[in-house]
Write a structure and sequence with these properties.
The chain is mainly beta and 156 residues long. The chain contains three helices and 15 strands. Strands 2-1-4-3-15 form a five-stranded mixed β-sheet. Strands 5-6-7-14 form a four-stranded antiparallel β-sheet, with no helix packed on it. A hairpin with a 4-residue loop joins strand 12 and strand 13.
């Protein structure tokens, strides 16, 4: 089953209570050229419209994979999906701020800042140069397509 996320615009965090609608319903609610972030994990796929991902910034992608979150920075229009775990421990990510074209979240379990671009906590980030030995959350590929193009590519 293909899902399409539709966020209630006034709500701040939709990680666990997002409303998903069919492609047909999405095309009634949003313009066909609405840009979406497409997430595909193990042949499950969902589209997250920029206008709906902008407000919560962190969306639990449980419709695609249980431990995956989609993070979205409105300053850079960057959507990155991660398995929200580090060192075998689950992270409960919430938006904190956006600065220098980067979404900064925090883990409510440790209250530690987490950089969207690097996918790791501040204590694990030795420098902001993407060192390969720094432990990061597992990243999942995302695509950007217009709503109509998503519906053509993954009909249903």
């Amino acid at each position: 089953m293909l899902n399409f996320i539709f966020q209630i615009t006034g709500a701040r965090n939709q990680k666990t209570n997002a409303v998903y609608v069919s492609q047909e319903e999405a095309l009634k609610l949003l313009p066909a050229d609405e840009t979406c972030i497409i997430l595909e994990v193990d042949e499950k796929v969902a589209a997250y419209p920029d206008s709906q991902a902008l407000r919560p910034h962190v969306i639990h992608a449980g419709d695609v994979a249980e431990d995956v979150v989609l993070t979205y920075c409105g300053l850079s229009n960057l959507g990155i999906a991660y398995t929200s775990k580090l060192a075998g421990k689950s992270l409960d990510l919430h938006p904190m701020t956006q600065m220098e074209n980067n979404l900064v979240m925090y883990d409510t379990n440790t209250m530690e800042p987490v950089q969207q671009l690097w996918g790791t906590t501040e204590s694990r980030m030795e420098c902001q140069c993407g060192l390969s030995n720094v432990e990061r959350m597992k990243e999942w590929p995302t695509y950007r397509l217009a709503l109509a193009d998503y519906c053509k590519a993954w009909p249903g």
